[in-house]
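Encode chain A's predicted structure.
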Amino acid sequence: MFNMARWGALILAYLFLALALVGVILPGLPTVPFLLLSAWFAAKGSQRLHRWLYSHPHFGKLLIDWEQRGAISRSSKVMAVILIFIAWVIMYLQISNLWVFAGMTLLLIGVIAFLLTRPEPD
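Encoded structure for chain A:
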């Protein structure tokens, strides 16, 4: 029987996995958020893909650390903060509306605060 929700979840799982893999190679494109989305959709669409993600030598550790402790590695935090700072500088140079810039600055500060308050894996 054709289950539209399952197929939709499976397609999204593979889409986000592809974006995560591109993020491994391309600086500036995040890997972990796309990997987390892929794992979430895989759990709904394909137990086989979900098991593969969690047993993967590199991706599995990231997923398990996040699932068990909400942990983010120090290197991921450093990279994220550097990329957020670069994005902030670009916004500073491009956005002329002070209110939009101030709002985006507060949003980015909130994201940095969230990242830095997450525990680090053992």
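The mean pLDDT is 90.
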